[in-house]
Amino acid sequence: MALIKSQLIKIHRAPNTFFTITTDHDKILTSSVHHHLESEIIYIARGTGQFVIGKSQHKFSEGDVIFIGPGIPHCFFFQSQEPHQAFADAETIHFYFGAVNQILKNICSASNSRIQGLLANAKKGILIPKNKSASVAAFIQKIAAGGKADFLHFLNLMFLIDEVVGAQNIIYKHPVNYLKTKNINKPIRLIWDYILANYTQAIDIRNLAGMANISPKSFSRYFKTESGYNYISFLMELRINYACELLRKDDLTIKQVCFQSGFNSLTGFHRQFKKNKGITPLEFLKKSQLESKTKTELVYTDFI
User: Fold this and answer.
1) pLDDT tens, residue by residue, 166-225
2) How far is residue 230's CA from residue 203's CA, in Å, rounded to a whole number?
3) How many CA atoms lie within 13 A of 163 on its CB side?
4) How much is the pLDDT for 218?
5) Which CATH number fits domain 5-169: 3.40.190.10, 3.30.450.20, 1.10.10.10, 2.60.120.10?
6) Same fold, 5-169 and 183-291
7) Residues pairing with 95 in the sheet
């Protein structure tokens, strides 16, 4: 898998604190591609948009909870309510925490195993939508209101998340562990943002090349050198991942999913989907429907 260029962000934690809690208002519309050594749990208190984790892009909205393991490249794109507005009317609560293996040795083996399993899944990225995140969101808001968190808060939050996370909430099948820590130069940053904002539409490579002041013939080599990705593979993966997201919702036909995810022919869509996922769109849809039907909902009883 290609390495992604991502800026390492240092998270500042006060001495002798387990969590770092931040609440951000009026978000900048586009964050840079970054990673950090800490795990991050993000609660979207207000706002909508899209986020990228590794090479997978997903929509988010108010009430969603996103759990990102350490070292995973990610960035966020918030929707603005007004044209030409530099900030979005949004609010997010972030929890950052470092390595916990030594601390977990002090709890019972069953709880330790349960949390270790959840942390392993966080390395694949976890998205919990609003319809499943109520108990988690309420607890996050409660901790944030207090302004600090201790180890018991951490344990309770892990148990809450573990109760509602199912296979369909895990973004990747395997941990996302590819990094190339280097600042992205300005032209490739503009190109990256443009592709992520427009990948469901037809993209003219001449426009992308123009952003870097190079010829269209040189663009693919330039994109590979600066981003670590093959341009066509990157674009196809974004579109296929978005198609999977639409198929999981099960309210569109495969033909509708094809065109809404940026493809201009069913034949090309089927070929790329099979190449990327190893199964056809119809097989993916049936598998998703079966998983949804057999999923057992878990109920959490608050014990705080």
Assistant:
1) 888 888 766 654 444 343 456 876 787 688 778 888 999 999 999 999 999 999 999 888
2) 15
3) 16
4) 94
5) 2.60.120.10
6) no
7) 21, 41
Tokens 């693919």, residue located? 220
CATH class of 183-291: mainly alpha
- Residue 172: what pLDDT? 74
β-sheet with 65-68: strand ranges across:
19-28, 87-97, 39-46, 65-68, 126-128
Could you tell me which residues come within 8 angstroms of residue 65 by beta carbon, excluding any fewer than 6 positions away?
Answer: 41, 42, 43, 44, 127, 128, 133, 136, 137, 140, 161
Helix (H/G/I), strand (E/B), else coil: 78: strand
More confident call, 250 vs 130: 130
Contacts of 150 (CB under 8 A, 6+ apart): 18, 19
Domain ranges in the chain are 5-169, 183-291
What six digits make up the tokens of 279? 């199964």
Query: In the structure encoding, which two tokens stand for residue 46, read together?
Result: 């207000």
Question: How far is it, in rounded angstroms, from Cα 2 to Cα 144?
Answer: 37
